[in-house]
Design brief:
The protein has helices at about 70-75, 80-90; strands spanning about 10, 20, 30, 35-40, 45, 65. The strands form two sheets. It has a four-stranded antiparallel β-sheet with strand order 2-3-4-5, with no helix packed on it. It has two helices and six strands; from the N terminus they run E-E-E-E-E-E-H-H.
């Protein structure tokens, strides 16, 4: 247990998509409390504010133990490869442009009618 009263967070318990610790990449993690990407410094989630921008997020300072073998971090897993293949098959939604409404001339350019 850490000094903030929370157990050390094991990397092996997180979804692979919530952790970036590969060599050569910035070490980042999705904060388990607020769901935003944060840097890992000295195996702790870098301190940050909660959504209210006043209080500190409870996930700040959370200790993280990288208990995954280096090979699993470098080589994509079969699940990741399947997800990437599936994503490659998807097509973007077609954008249907609507015609713009005609813009009336400014009032000062409209000729005054004599009635």
């Amino acid at each position: 247990m850490h000094h903030n009263g929370r157990d050390v967070l094991l990397a092996s318990t997180l979804p692979v998509s919530n952790l970036e610790v590969r060599p050569g990449e910035a070490r980042t993690i999705v904060c388990p409390d607020c769901g935003t990407w944060r840097f890992l410094r000295r195996n702790m989630i870098f301190p940050h504010r909660a959504a209210d921008d006043r209080s500190r997020c409870p996930g700040s300072g959370q200790r993280v133990r990288i208990d995954l073998p280096l090979a699993s971090l470098v080589a994509p897993s079969a699940r990741q490869q399947a997800e990437q293949a599936q994503a490659g098959l998807r097509r973007a939604a077609r954008v249907q442009l609507k015609p713009s409404a005609p813009v009336p001339p400014p009032v000062f350019k409209v000729k005054a009618s004599t009635v």
